[in-house]
Amino acid sequence: xxxxxxxxxxxxxxxxxxxxxxxxxxxxxxxxxxxxxxxxxxxxxxxxxxxxxxxxxxxxxxxxxxxxxxxxxxxxxxxxxxxxxxxxxxxxxxxxxxxxxxxxxxxxxxxxxxxxxxxxxxxxxxxxxxxxxxxxxxxxxxxxxxxxxxxxxxxxxxxxxxxxxxxxxxxxxxxxxxxxxxxxxxxxxxxxxxxxxxxxxxxxxxxxxxxxxxxxxxxxxxxxxxxxxxxxxxxxxxxxxxxxxxxxxxxxxxxxxxxxxxxxxxxxxxxxxx
Length: 274
What we know:
The chain is of the alpha/beta class. It folds into two domains: 45-222, 3-Layer(aba) Sandwich (Aminopeptidase); 235-273, no CATH class. 50% of the residues lie in helices and 14% in strands. Strands 4-1-5-8-6-7 form a six-stranded mixed beta sheet, with helices on both faces. It has a two-stranded antiparallel sheet with strand order 2-3. A hairpin with a 2-residue loop joins strand 2 and strand 3 (67-68). The two termini are 31 Å apart.
């Protein structure tokens, strides 16, 4: 009975929390749009970045160590969007939920958005270790973007396998996301999902760390100064705050944490409760 009540409470909490996050997101977007495009007496240039989220829906991508690439990619992408928006960047994103998202659609959405730069978020497989990034054969701004992101990823302790290019049989860029987008674009592979490397991406906090590194590299490329770290909260700290403030027991916290993205939701809830 106690477990059943805890499950019911956790379900209700998740529903309330989801509504809260969506309402805050809508308020943020509305205020951001007004602030971004209107300044008294002068026009303001607004940087635009598009985030492609690899795989999704029926396409799980690579799998390993209890992780699915489509979920890891989405987690990093959402954290990256949040960081870029915090710095005043207008962000387009190919998906925000688990749905089919083929590369052809990503390219179409990206080109319609007309950003300065585009990044495609992926997770590697094949038993290796380390970060790698692909950019266009011609180098240019795409290579600079990849270099800046790589430098920040190394700072968080992930080794790099280097920056790469790949050509198709016609001598053009192999990857459609790089070849067909109208802006400089890169493909980012944070870590290997099917090796010990997966330990670096197996929690929301770790994926948020990768997203922060990506954002720093992108912002440097855009010429935007990084504002400094936002005070982070661990999942354990969030659990304690929720239990103290809301009077929830350990069973309820356990069930709430079992939801997809539950750890991230608990952190958001705890921050709102402080």
